[in-house]
């Protein structure tokens, strides 16, 4: 196996500039949407006092979860010594930073007082898992940046393993923290579960690798650099395993809830009676987001077609967004059980009723803006620094090397 | 001087400091105005007290919302403050609301006011990243809007849907209840009144209407009316299973 | 903080006329006029307000000195038509300097920027009082009206 050669992309083609232009336009539109929300207040959004976290949170949490997952490829090479993944490690680290930045941008801009970001950085309540997450996110940027430095500067290469291990542990803690944001909510039937943290970790594996695979495919196709089939298949099979694992966790979560009588209400709501949430769950999350990708990945002939595998990865991403929508918004829409054993027959604040939520254009635009920020960061970084190997052809990366 | 004395009840401190006639003056034979337990303005609230409200659901009249109206007038939210005109009913602030519940087994119908339950272990305080969501030494749970960043995590955590996020610019706030766009707010147990030895507006209004369904007082003082009522007749917490030890209790639920 | 405010004053002193600061309603103290020497207040009001806000909100200390509400009560005065300027307008006491120095403040997104005409402390609070319970008022001869008469005219 040859040592991988990394090279900046040329970045002068019309396609590249068009990509930057489109992403830049999406970001500008997103900033405009944010200005509307900030100027008028959140009444222009779909959120209300029952559904307090809306579409921006779906995008933000998706990106943050995917960020830690995107780092997996690097971890597999540094921590678990799989040399075939080594050439992919730099892109993996870059994508992790970019996705986190995009997610955090959405999160911050959706605050009621984004101008008080400095308060969030200077006043800490250490009992809050949210405060811990702020520290974990900032630490993730630093550790992954150092990790990239260790990988990219030859004289520092020898430290890439210990730093890689630190980054790997950090990302596990980070996703545990993100999952626990929901797991620690005692009063909400949909969230209050220890399984949230491990489920978010496995979701991160899946979402992160799906994005990684698509970015890899796009950058190699658009730059005309070779990407070997064996390596591609290996990544695809890994993604399939992750998608199946997410499905398993979803199954375990719902089975546990179905067993406990106190959770029958929320289960009936999500699985049977929840209208849009039920449809999104079965059609979006299960069929489109899980079963169809698995079919595409493991079908003897479809699984070999890059376009269909790419479609599968896109479906994993869409399914992931839908999964978070069902979990987070569906979980809030289901009424709080304030009076167990009683039925609310009258309330000036819609107690006992399913809460309404319709995403507004502004929220969706802000969410897409976060995604565009992540992608534009990657697009710019691969032009400026040496993130991408000149060749990922099978003979150059030895994908069958197992040690 | 007996325990059954009178009390001008408004702000006793102002009353007594400014109205020279007051201190210890007999205003009727055998009856004295007396300053009881009033905390001086410069002294901090202490954990020697824990303020609470007991709501007797049997006395709470169906269709009556005096407590809600009184709260609106006192704190300047809701209909009396038109500045939330852009927000839809799901977005408008709700510091206190009337809820009517029916027992699924017996069909028994009850009416009650629902607001911040002023938990001893408030989930909203635990989850707040900046510490803006806070509990005072005397058990009153508040939002420090100076450090609230509007993340709404407290609203996710509250089991009672007691908190509101302000969705638009406000005007004409009350001096006693600052509130504004992008921050979270909730019932303050009329902390400004409590600090001047007064009674929350909702409780006052309920009594003024002769429903007498609400009692306010110090849960740590065994001789307070609320403690005696609770000891004698009991009072339940909403979602007692969560172990939050709420400061607001309901009887007859 | 103080430096932040002072800097633009010195920088701009030559170019723009110093702002005309509205007169306060009354003297808070005979000694200084305001609650502290004017020079001190100009330099340190923000720190005092910041300190006071935490004391009041978090500790329940409700003294009048350095209370924002009292600043507004005394300093924000009506014009000839009895109208109060809002924060942001040059006529508003706080805006006068803050506009001049281009220093933004965050107080009035939540706090009321004008005096409030009604005073909640004057409302009566009968019946269930915290220390005696409503028993105290049952069957006695002292009516609310009597109490009202007793207290009227003598409050601030």
TrEMBL record, chain A:
InterPro entries: Electron_transfer_protein, NrfD-like. GO terms for cellular component: plasma membrane. It is found in: Cell membrane. The keyword Cell membrane applies. Pfam families: NrfD. Belongs to the NrfD family. This is Molybdopterin-containing oxidoreductase family membrane subunit.
UniProtKB/TrEMBL annotation, chain B:
The keyword Iron applies. Pfam families: Fer4_11 (PF13247). Gene3D superfamilies: 3.30.70.20. One of its GO terms (molecular function) is 4 iron, 4 sulfur cluster binding. The keyword Iron-sulfur applies. Residues 51-83, 139-168 form the 4Fe-4S ferredoxin-type domain. Keywords: 4Fe-4S, Iron, Iron-sulfur, Metal-binding. This is Molybdopterin-containing oxidoreductase family iron-sulfur binding subunit. It comes from Thiohalophilus thiocyanatoxydans.
TrEMBL record, chain C:
SUPFAM superfamilies: Multiheme cytochromes. InterPro entries: Multihaem_cyt_sf. This is Uncharacterized protein.
């Amino acid at each position: 196996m040859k040592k991988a050669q990394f090279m900046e992309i040329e970045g002068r083609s019309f396609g590249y500039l068009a990509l930057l232009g489109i992403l830049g336009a999406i970001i500008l539109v997103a900033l405009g949407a944010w200005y509307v929300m900030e100027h008028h207040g959140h009444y222009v959004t779909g959120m209300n006092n029952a559904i307090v976290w809306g579409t921006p949170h779906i995008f933000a949490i998706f990106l943050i979860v995917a960020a830690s997952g995107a780092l997996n490829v690097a971890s597999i090479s540094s921590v678990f010594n799989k040399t075939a993944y080594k050439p992919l490690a730099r892109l993996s680290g870059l994508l992790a930073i970019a996705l986190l930045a995009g997610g955090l941008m959405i999160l911050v801009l959706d605050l009621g007082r984004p101008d008080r970001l400095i308060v969030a950085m200077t006043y800490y309540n250490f009992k809050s898992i949210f405060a811990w997450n702020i520290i974990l996110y900032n630490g993730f940027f630093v550790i992954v940046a150092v990790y990239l430095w260790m990988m990219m500067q030859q004289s520092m290469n020898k430290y890439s393993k210990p730093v890689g291990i630190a980054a790997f542990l950090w990302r596990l803690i980070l996703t545990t923290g993100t999952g626990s944001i929901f797991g620690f909510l005692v009063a909400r039937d949909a969230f209050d579960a220890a399984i949230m943290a491990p489920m978010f970790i496995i979701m991160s594996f899946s979402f992160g690798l799906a994005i990684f695979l698509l970015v890899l495919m796009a950058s190699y196709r658009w730059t005309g650099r070779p990407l070997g089939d064996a390596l591609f298949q290996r990544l695809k099979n890994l993604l399939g395993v992750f998608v199946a694992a997410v499905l398993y966790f979803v199954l375990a979560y719902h089975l546990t809830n179905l067993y406990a009588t106190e959770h029958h209400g929320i289960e009936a709501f999500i699985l049977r009676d929840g209208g849009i949430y039920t449809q999104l769950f079965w059609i979006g999350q299960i069929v489109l987001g899980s079963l169809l990708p698995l079919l595409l990945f493991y079908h003897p002939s479809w699984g070999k077609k890059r376009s269909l595998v790419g479609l599968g990865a896109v479906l994993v991403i869409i399914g992931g967004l839908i999964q978070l929508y069902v979990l987070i918004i569906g979980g809030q829409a289901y009424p709080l059980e304030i009076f167990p054993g009683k039925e609310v027959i009258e309330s000036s604040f819609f107690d006992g009723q399913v809460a309404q939520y319709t995403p507004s254009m502004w929220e969706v635009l802000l969410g897409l803006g976060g995604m565009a920020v992540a992608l534009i960061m990657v697009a710019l970084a691969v032009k400026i620094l040496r993130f991408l190997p000149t060749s990922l052809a099978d003979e150059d990366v030895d994908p069958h090397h197992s040690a | 001087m007996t325990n059954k004395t009178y009390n001008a009840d408004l702000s006793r401190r102002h009353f007594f400091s400014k109205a020279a006639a007051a201190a210890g003056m007999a205003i009727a034979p055998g009856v004295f105005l007396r300053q009881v337990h009033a905390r001086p303005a410069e002294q901090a609230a202490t954990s020697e007290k824990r303020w609470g409200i007991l709501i007797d659901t049997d006395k709470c009249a169906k269709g009556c919302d005096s407590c809600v109206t009184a709260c609106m007038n006192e704190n300047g939210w809701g209909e009396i403050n038109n500045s939330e005109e852009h927000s839809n009913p799901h977005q408008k602030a709700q510091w206190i609301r009337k809820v009517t519940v029916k027992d699924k087994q017996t069909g028994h119908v009850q009416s009650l006011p629902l607001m911040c339950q002023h938990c001893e272990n408030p989930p909203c305080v635990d989850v707040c990243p900046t510490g803006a969501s806070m509990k005072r030494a005397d058990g009153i749970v508040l939002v420090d809007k100076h450090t609230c960043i509007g993340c709404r995590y407290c609203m996710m955590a509250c089991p009672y849907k007691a908190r509101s996020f302000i969705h638009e610019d406000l005007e004409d706030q009350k001096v006693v209840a600052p509130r504004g766009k992008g921050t979270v707010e909730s019932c303050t147990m009329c902390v400004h009144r409590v600090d001047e030895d007064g009674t929350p507006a909702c409780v006052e209004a309920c009594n003024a209407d002769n429903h007498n369904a609400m009692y306010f007082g110090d849960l740590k003082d065994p001789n307070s009316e609320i403690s005696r009522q609770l000891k004698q007749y009991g009072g339940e917490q909403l979602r007692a299973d969560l172990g939050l030890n709420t400061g607001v209790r309901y009887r007859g639920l | 903080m103080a430096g932040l405010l002072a800097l633009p004053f010195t920088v701009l002193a030559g170019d723009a006329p110093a702002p005309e600061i509205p007169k306060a309603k009354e003297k808070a103290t005979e000694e200084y006029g305001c609650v502290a020497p004017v020079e001190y207040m100009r330099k340190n009001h923000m720190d005092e307000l910041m300190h006071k806000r935490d004391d009041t909100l978090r500790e329940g200390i409700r003294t009048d000195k350095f209370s924002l509400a009292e600043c507004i009560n005394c300093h924000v005065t009506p014009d000839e038509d009895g109208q109060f300027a809002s924060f942001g307008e040059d006529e508003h006491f706080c805006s006068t300097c803050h506009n001049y120095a281009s220093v933004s403040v965050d107080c009035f997104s939540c706090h009321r920027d004008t005096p409030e005409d009604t005073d909640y402390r004057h409302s009566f609070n009968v019946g269930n009082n915290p220390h005696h319970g409503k028993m105290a008022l049952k069957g006695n001869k002292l009516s609310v009206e009597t109490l009202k008469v007793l207290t009227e005219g003598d409050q601030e």
